[in-house]
Design brief:
single chain; 343 residues; alpha+beta; 2 domains; 3-stranded antiparallel β-sheet; 11% strand; globular; SET domain-containing protein
Length: 343
Amino acid sequence: MDIDVTGIPLYDILTTPHGGRSAFAHEKIPKGSPVLHCSAPYASVIFWKFRREVCAWCFAYAFESGKRKWNIKLGEDHRGAGGAWFCSEGCREACIRENEIFEGQGIGWWLEINGAFERLVAQMGKSGKQDRKPTGRSTPAGALAYLEDTTIKDLTPEYVDRAWGLAEEVAAEESSHERKTKWTEVLNELEIDTARFVLDGLVRKAVEDINPTFSILDRVTDAPGYCMGAGRWSNLLELQDNEVALELSKPYMLASSIRVYRFLRHLATSLSKQAVRSSPHIQETSPLIYLADQLRTSLATSSAARSLMGRDHGNTFGIWDMVSDDKGSEMLGWGAYVFGSYF
């Protein structure tokens, strides 16, 4: 892959001696030269506890402006905000403009999907015999319970693939009873944040499938240096998959990742059934119907979710506040900037 600025290649993306790929300059690049500008992350998440304090568009932190939280919601007449809050009307308008899949149809689909996510999180642990107060511990489906005791010695590629195959079977069974069964397992904060990150990536993939010309995928801004959009699914898949490396360092992540997948499949199933009946104003051409179908298709197997979670580790950038280093900066979330991952 050549990276070109004003017709002069500055560097290539090449395989490194230690595996993976990185950027290699053709020649010395003067200090301060702009080499890459990414207009958007492919997928991102603001930590659940900070979602009212960090702008969903520019990631501005409310405390840095002397405020406790932002008050501008994406949809003023919608119950809840779908997890999106903004520092200004300008950021809110930019978010709407950049995420409108088809001109004139707005982004009500975004509110519906993220609102459903928030409702499912609020529902956790409140049904059946579970304690109404979440403890952070999950009760996995019986067939998957053994994964909670996974050790490093267990983690062969065959063991991992069998676990995911079983997870797909369990999730399919759960989805078939979705009308009667509510999600009751409790995800911890990291799992909730990971689920939102994966959902963001799956929505981006679904948007690409629905409208391949969607501008934010490839949009090049007029910023100095080589400019890239959020990228496409194929660009994401070019990043190194670190699934096994992550699980070998943290064996509990296999069960955790499978729990995230099952949660999202449950969400997608409920969305696909609600899309045509949730609101009388939703028409047959509504993006929500197409997106719900695409999400359900993407989550019919674990492949896409695994691809995102496997590339999360080692390929994402932290979203940090801007306080001086001596005061200790706080991480507010993370984002996958596909083209920036090679640096």
